[in-house]
Each structure stands twice: as structure tokens, then as C-alpha cells.
Design a protein that fits this description.
Layout: E1 6-11, H1 16-32, H2 43-49, E2 50-57, E3 60-69, E4 75-82, H3 91-105, E5 110-115, H4 120-128, E6 132-134, E7 147-152
Antiparallel strand pairs: 1-2, 2-3, 3-4, 5-7, 6-7
Length: 165
């Protein structure tokens, strides 16, 4: 459960704190993936066609997440990150729920994301929030280090997991 000191709000990703969070995330991603498969969205790309949220706990910045529309009009979850000292407190879950609510309020019927096998905690977060695995979307190439996921916001599928009824 989150402490009373939790805050979440829209922010400019090009500020010093936005850039610092994204740099921390990039450093983490580059420690577990080869650079050739890191799809890193810049703060400027988020600012031009997306929304960026920052999470604070007791006035300390602890995480971020973004939504960005791709070239095909699909809404992608980007730049989800919680600093290591703040993990395990429900921050990512709350941040994800807020971004989903925002997406729904803007009329989007789905959110898409790309993650990878080394990020077991992220995969569990997304699956527990109702995301299901799917094939590549939005111009991504299929790759063994990529896991593509989607969550329907208009109606939740009947947990078919791709099997025939």
C-alpha cells in the first residue's frame, strides 16, 4: 500500500528531473540489453506527441511513465521506471493505472507496449494489470529479446490467450 506522501502528476520530460529519470532508465536498459535492441524514446519525442508523468513519494521523485502515440495511431506505454529504492511499494501499479485512465479519457481503446524477457517484474506487473502478449505492432520487428503486449481499454477480452474456443 502506498504511503500518504504519494503524488503523481504530469510533467515536462525535457526538464532536468525528467531527463535524469530517463537517463537512469536508459542506463538500466543498456545493462541488460544490447544497444541494437533498445528502443529508447527521447524526452523530446514524448513532449511532441505524448504525455509524461512523474511519481513522488514524500516529495522525493521516485519514478516516471509516459504514453506516446505511434505513427499508426496506436498508444504506446513508454518510459515506465521506478527507482530501485522505491520499488515494491505499489508505485508502478498506481502509475500504470493512472496512465490507463488518462488513455481511456482521451478515447483510446488499447495500450500497447514492448518489453523483454529479462524484465520479469515488469512482465508480471503488466500481466497482473490485464495486458496480454501479442505479436509485434507499430513497426517493431519481431525479436527474441522483445515481448509485445496489449491491453484493451474498451472491453477486456475473455482471457483467450490466443487459443481456440
Amino acid at each position: 500500500m502506498l504511503a500518504d506522501g504519494f503524488q503523481l502528476g504530469e510533467a515536462d520530460p525535457t526538464t532536468d528531473i525528467g531527463r535524469a529519470l530517463i537517463a537512469e532508465l536508459d542506463a538500466y536498459l543498456l545493462s541488460i540489453y544490447p544497444i541494437s535492441v533498445c528502443h529508447r524514446t527521447t524526452p523530446e519525442e514524448i513532449l511532441s506527441n505524448g504525455v509524461f508523468y512523474i511519481a513522488k513519494l514524500d516529495e522525493q521523485v521516485v519514478g516516471c511513465g509516459a504514453l506516446k502515440e505511434n505513427k499508426l495511431g496506436q498508444l504506446e506505454l513508454k518510459r515506465m521506471f521506478v527507482r530501485p529504492m522505491a520499488r515494491g511499494k505499489g508505485i508502478a501499479k498506481k502509475l500504470l493505472a493512472e496512465l490507463e485512465t488518462l488513455a481511456q479519457s482521451k478515447g483510446f481503446d488499447a495500450i500497447y507496449l514492448e518489453t523483454g524477457p529479462p524484465q520479469k517484474e515488469a512482465i508480471a506487473l503488466y500481466e497482473n494489470a490485464g495486458y496480454f502478449r501479442r505479436g509485434p505492432f507499430g513497426g517493431y520487428d519481431d525479436h527474441p529479446l522483445s515481448i509485445f503486449m496489449e491491453k484493451r481499454l474498451d472491453s477486456v477480452p475473455s482471457q483467450s490467450n490466443g487459443s481456440a474456443a
